Amino acid sequence: MRNGRTASQRYARPRRAALAISLAALVALHTGPALAQAATKATGGSRGVAALGRLEPEGGIVRVALPSTPEAISGGVIARLHVDRGADVTAGQLLAEADTVGVLKAQVAEARAALETARRDARASVSLADEACVLADVYGRQSKRQAELLSRKLTSDDAADQAKGNAEAGAATCKARRAAAGVAESRIAGAEAEVVRQQAELERAFVRAPFAGRVLDIHARQGEMAGAAGVLDLGRVQQMYAIAEVYETDIRNVKVGQKARVTSEALPRALTGSVTLIRPKVQKLDEIGTDPAARKDARIIEVEIRLDDSAPAAALSLLQVEIEIGR
After folding, report:
1. Residue 53: which residues within 8 A CB-CB, separation 6 or more?
2. pLDDT tens track for 265-322
3. E strand or H helix at 306, and its extent?
4. Residues 6+ apart with CB under 8 A from 176
5. What is the DSSP string of 14-79?
């Protein structure tokens, strides 16, 4: 009996093991790879998250556009392009020029000429006002003398009245000339403002780097129309980030400050970094892997990972990478 029971137990153990494997396979078949992956994590005792992602410069890739102007409502033609792909630029550096530069320069010159005319008109108005006021002063003194002579009966009433009339007319002319001079001087301010506006319009025809970075792509070259696609793409490659696309069901296992590991066959070695931001938006999966069982309509949340060493990734913007967070 002892040998019989031992034999039964010996045969029962393989049967139980086979039954457990069959049940595990059945669960995986009906629940899919996500539950199987969760089971693997629970078995291994790890709460890390694995995801696909991409490399991006700090702040993303910025599309530098040509400002629209009244001369080019739908965009402008590139007259000169001063940089090419891969060029490192500084903030404010001239990148390109639109073909409206010539017209806008002419408008600036016209505005400056109008300003000079306004200044000369103002000077002339002031001179005329000074002249009128000097004459008014003379007429005023003559009227005063005629009034004194009239009081002594040394002049006629007509002469005294004429002198008084000239004095009053001279004072009115002086006042009018002063007012006209004030109006002429106010036109100078308007002309100066027009020069500033035209200079600002001219500056808009020059495309300058909004920040220091690297030119990643060119969308319009000399002679081509720069429309909605912009002129070029610019990125702050001095600091690179990995953007992990984490499934919404796994995001609870991701925390700011966690360490991450970034790998790709295109990278010379694995890169490390730290989670700096969990973006507050759920969206559809962008980076599709090679797993045929993966859900193509999965919902993901993007997680920003600041790389400790950006040099190996600086020339590989938008490279698809594999990311492990918290492992």
Report:
1. 242, 243, 244, 245, 262, 287, 303, 305, 320, 321, 322, 323
2. 999 999 999 999 999 999 987 655 555 545 556 799 999 999 999 999 999 999 999 9
3. strand 299-307
4. 132
5. HHHHHHHHHHHHHHHHHH-HHHHHHHHHHHHT---EEEEEEEEEEEEEEEE-PPPBTTBTT-EEEE
Task: Give the SS3 label for residue 267.
Answer: coil
- The answer to whether 125 and 177 have CB atoms below 8 angstroms apart is yes
**Residue 167, exposed/middle/buried by CB under 10 A (0-12, 13-18, 19+)?**
buried
3-state secondary structure 102-155: HHHHHHHHHHHHHHHHHHHHHHHHHHHHHHHHHHHHHHHHHHHHHHHHHHCCCC
pTM: 0.66
Look up residue 88 and give its two tokens. Answer: 């490192």
Alpha-carbon torsion angle 279, 281, 285, 289, nearest 10: 10
- What's the CATH fold of domain 33-98+210-327? Elongation Factor Tu (Ef-tu); domain 3 (2.40.30)
Rounded CA gap, 279 and 283, in Å?
10
- Around Cβ 84, how many Cβ atoms within 10 Å? 10
For residue 280, give the H/E element and its range.
Answer: strand 271-284
Q: How many CA atoms lie within 13 A of 283 on its CB side?
A: 11
With vertex at residue 115, the alpha carbon angle to CA 172 and CA 206, rounded to the nearest 5 degrees, is 155
Amino acid letter, 192: E
Per the CB < 8 A criterion, the answer to whether 70 and 90 are in contact is no
**Secondary structure of residue 3 in the 3-state scheme:** helix
> Model confidence over 221-275: pLDDT tens digits?
999 988 778 899 999 999 999 999 999 999 999 999 999 999 999 999 999 999 9
What six digits make up the tokens of 247? 């499934």
Which residues on neighbouring strands pair with residue 232, listed in sequence order?
64, 218
Residue type present at position 231: V
